[in-house]
Every structure is written in structure tokens, then in C-alpha cells.
Write a structure and sequence with these properties.
Lysozyme, 240 residues, Muramidase, 34% helix, Lysozyme-like_dom_sf
């Protein structure tokens, strides 16, 4: 149905405009917020975080019209050294960052940051990205790529002068875990295999149910753990 006429248009405008880790992954007593003690500029030898699920609005907001209040920033799922959440974080860290932990920088980056990632602010990270085009920029324990880092930082409401410390990295990764269906998988509304496949679409170091990385062979990506290890780690905590 077509709407015409100034009066109709006016009405429409007035409407409101949205690591190598030892021991059991899930029974470690170490908290997920404790950074690995690394030498400066430690780099990752694993694959980088890959997927970018970005959405854009078709229309810019109309300044003269008061819209709904902005959603509350995503605050994260909290610290956890045990159970499903802590185990997932350590599994992803093992697959993606290895020994470099929270200070991992993608091994393909020829020009590394001058500071450890955990000592950098988001603004400094984005400045490094802008100053070094044509190279990979995946960074941190969860190997955030630039577009994903910008997106999840915006969702979390993190200011660019905030430090990219372990707590922030966990908080930003929790957004990705939530988007993959963590709550649904915990509640039994999403099969474990489906959740695992969703995770493999976000982190290239995790295998899909085919046994390979979802991005196998693309830009050198490969899974760094086996599907059986992946499944064995999640089986005690998630329904089948």
C-alpha cells in the first residue's frame, strides 16, 4: 500500500524511530579475568577471529524527533574460572591465542603494536590498525578482528579511552558467546552440536562438525583442536 500526502508523511516522521592450557578446561581454579604473564609483543600462532555479523540501519535517525531510549550496554556474563563459561573461554583461548593469552597479536601482522595489547586503549588499537593497512590485525585472547572489535565495543558501550584489559576482553567475548546461542544451549532450546557449529563460525580455531574449521584454507585458517575434544569439553554442561 502506498502512502501519499504531506499529512501522512508528517505522521510517519512524528513516530518514534533500535591457552596451551594444562589440566581440565572446566575445573581450573584460575579465574577467566587473570591475564597470562607474557613478554611484550607476544604473538599468536593460531588463526584469527573471523566472522563479522554487522547490521546497518537503512535510515539515519531524524534529529528533531525524540526516539526511544538507547538499550543498556551489554555488561558481560561475569568472571568465571569453572563451569561452562570459564571452560568455553579457556577452550577458545587455547584454540586462538595459545601461550600469548590476552596479549596475543595475529602472527601474520608484520608491524606489531609498540605496547602489549592489555596496556593499550581501544583508541590506541584502532590507531595501530589505521596506521598499518594490508596486514592482519586480530588481537587479544579472543583474536578480535577490527570490524568485530568495533561492533562489540559499541554494543558494550565501551569508551575508546578504556584499556583493552582482560576484563574488557572477556566482556566483549561474552557478546559473541551470547550471539552464538549460549543461553538457548544452556536451556536445552538449541542442540549442543548447533551451538558448537555457531562457535566455529566465530572462531576459526574451533572445528565445525565436519572436523575442519568453518574457514579451512581461507587465509591460512585451520582448526587447532579436534571435534572430539571440543564435544568432550561441552558434553557435561550442555544437553545433547
Amino acid at each position: 500500500m502506498r502512502l501519499a500526502g504531506p499529512l501522512v508523511l508528517l505522521c510517519l516522521v512524528a513516530m518514534p524511530l533500535r591457552a596451551e592450557m594444562a589440566g581440565s578446561i572446566f575445573m581450573s581454579s584460575r579465574g577467566a579475568f587473570i591475564p597470562a604473564l607474557m613478554q611484550p609483543q607476544a604473538v599468536s600462532s593460531g588463526p584469527s577471529l573471523f566472522a563479522n555479523r554487522t547490521g546497518r540501519s537503512l535510515f539515519a535517525p531524524i534529529p528533531s524527533v525524540a526516539g526511544p531510549a538507547s538499550p543498556e550496554p551489554f555488561v558481560g556474563l561475569g568472571p568465571s574460572g569453572q563451569g561452562l563459561l570459564g571452560g568455553l573461554r579457556r577452550l577458545i583461548a587455547e584454540a586462538e591465542a595459545g601461550r600469548a593469552g590476552y596479549d596475543a597479536v595475529q602472527h601474520g601482522a608484520r608491524i606489531k603494536p609498540l605496547k602489549r595489547p592489555t596496556d593499550m586503549t581501544l583508541r590506541e588499537i584502532f590507531a595501530w590498525i589505521e596506521a598499518t593497512p594490508g596486514q592482519p590485525h586480530a588481537i587479544g585472547l579472543y583474536q578480535f578482528i577490527p570490524s568485530t572489535l568495533r561492533r562489540v565495543a559499541a554494543i558494550a558501550g565501551v569508551p575508546h579511552d578504556a584499556r583493552f584489559d582482560p576484563a574488557m576482553q572477556d566482556r566483549l567475548a561474552d557478546i559473541l558467546l551470547s550471539e552464538a546461542g549460549l543461553a538457548e544451549a544452556r536451556a536445552g532450546r538449541m542442540p549442543r552440536r548447533a551451538f558448537m557449529n555457531n562457535l566455529s563460525k566465530i572462531w576459526a580455531g574451533l572445528p565445525s562438525s565436519s572436523g575442519r574449521s568453518h574457514y579451512h584454507g581461507y587465509a591460512g585458517n585451520r582448526s587447532t583442536i579436534t571435534w572430539s575434544r571440543f564435544e568432550e569439553a561441552l558434553r557435561p554442561h550442555l544437553p545433547g
